[in-house]
């Protein structure tokens, strides 16, 4: 503490160290949040279901996605990234995950929502195994923090299946 | 600043920064607002810097008393050559 510059430097470095510490504690406090999200997806319509010229199956769906993700938001949440994936098994792959729709929820006010949409991304198989296929629709979310650790989880909804013949 | 003042300024800086961080964190957590925490902490940092960095008079209340030149001349400084000779002889023995 010998001179003006010495004190200014000491204050600057100490204040930045303390800032890092409180951001770390803020991120740690997210562990005390026990979320209870809910979601439901209805497949309203199979718009078309074809085999593409290159041999892969493709299906277009109209979905109604409704969810209540309010409990995921904490004081340290910047936004929640949510996406819906169709998951199924084929002889070729033990797990296929195809992302059908995603969105960004910027705040708690927007986290209770429903959306009526066709699939944003194409539902294409690696091969031709989709006829009569049973699949799960899993809603995944990533809680992106303002500082610190990101939490990710999902809800699996099962019981969906594709028709046995092309349309 | 004098030595006592430097110690006081350093302790005051550390205490005030930790306090403003604690107050900011608790307020932000209770209100659920990250921005509030950062604003309170930033205000605390600015306040601390205004109090501890400049050379305020309160940090100069124990100034060092240097000797007057006329008094200092009465006590001659020790001569380095007279001391080193006898010391070397003692170690050789």
TrEMBL record, chain A:
GO biological process: signal peptide processing
InterPro entries in the cross-refs: SPC3
Localization per record: Endoplasmic reticulum membrane
Major localization listed first in the record, in broad terms: endoplasmic reticulum
Keyword Magnesium: no
GO cellular component, one term: signal peptidase complex
Keywords for this protein: Endoplasmic reticulum, Membrane, Signal-anchor, Transmembrane, Transmembrane helix
Membrane topology qualifier: Single-pass type II membrane protein
Domain of life: Eukaryota
Family: Belongs to the SPCS3 family.
Function recorded in the entry: Essential component of the signal peptidase complex (SPC) which catalyzes the cleavage of N-terminal signal sequences from nascent proteins as they are translocated into the lumen of the endoplasmic reticulum. Essential for the SPC catalytic activity, possibly by stabilizing and positioning the active center of the complex close to the lumenal surface.
PANTHER family registered for this protein in UniProt: MICROSOMAL SIGNAL PEPTIDASE 23 KD SUBUNIT SPC22/23 (PTHR12804), SIGNAL PEPTIDASE COMPLEX SUBUNIT 3 (PTHR12804:SF0)
Protein name, entry field: Signal peptidase complex subunit 3
Lineage: Eukaryota, Viridiplantae, Streptophyta, Embryophyta, Tracheophyta
Automatic annotation (TrEMBL), chain B:
One Pfam family this sequence matches: SPC12
InterPro entries the record matches: Spc1/SPCS1 (IPR009542)
Transmembrane segments: 12-32, 38-56
Renumbered residue ranges of the record's region Disordered: 74-93
Cellular localisation: Endoplasmic reticulum membrane
Keywords of this entry: Endoplasmic reticulum, Membrane, Transmembrane, Transmembrane helix
Tagged with keyword Transmembrane: yes
Topological type in the membrane: Multi-pass membrane protein
Any one of the GO CC terms: endoplasmic reticulum membrane
Top-level taxon of the source organism: Eukaryota
Tagged with keyword Transmembrane helix: yes
Stated family: Belongs to the SPCS1 family.
Function: Component of the signal peptidase complex (SPC) which catalyzes the cleavage of N-terminal signal sequences from nascent proteins as they are translocated into the lumen of the endoplasmic reticulum. Dispensable for SPC enzymatic activity.
Protein name as catalogued: Signal peptidase complex subunit 1
Source species of the chain: Penstemon smallii
């Amino acid at each position: 503490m010998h001179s003006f510059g010495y004190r200014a430097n000491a204050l600057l470095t100490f204040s930045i160290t303390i800032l890092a510490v409180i951001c770390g504690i803020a991120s740690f406090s997210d562990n005390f949040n026990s979320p209870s999200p809910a979601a439901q997806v209805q497949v309203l319509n199979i718009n078309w279901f074809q085999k593409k010229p290159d041999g892969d199956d493709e299906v277009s769906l109209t979905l109604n996605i409704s969810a209540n993700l309010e409990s995921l938001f904490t004081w340290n949440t910047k936004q929640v990234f949510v996406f819906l994936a169709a998951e199924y098994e084929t002889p070729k792959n033990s797990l296929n995950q195809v992302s059908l729709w995603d969105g960004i929820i910027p705040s708690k006010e927007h986290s209770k929502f429903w959306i009526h949409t066709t699939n944003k991304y194409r539902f294409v198989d690696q091969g031709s195994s989709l006829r009569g296929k049973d699949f799960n629709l899993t809603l995944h979310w990533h809680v992106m923090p303002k500082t610190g650790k990101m939490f990710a989880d999902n809800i699996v909804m099962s019981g969906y299946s594709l028709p046995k013949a092309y349309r | 600043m004098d030595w006592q003042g430097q110690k006081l300024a350093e302790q005051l800086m550390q205490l005030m920064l930790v306090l403003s961080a604690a107050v900011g964190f608790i307020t932000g957590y209770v209100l659920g607002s990250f921005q509030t925490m950062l604003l309170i902490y930033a205000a605390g940092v600015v306040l601390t810097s205004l109090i501890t960095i400049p050379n305020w008079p309160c940090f100069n209340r124990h100034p060092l008393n240097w000797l007057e030149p006329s008094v200092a001349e009465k006590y001659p400084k020790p001569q380095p050559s007279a001391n080193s000779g006898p010391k070397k002889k003692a170690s050789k023995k």
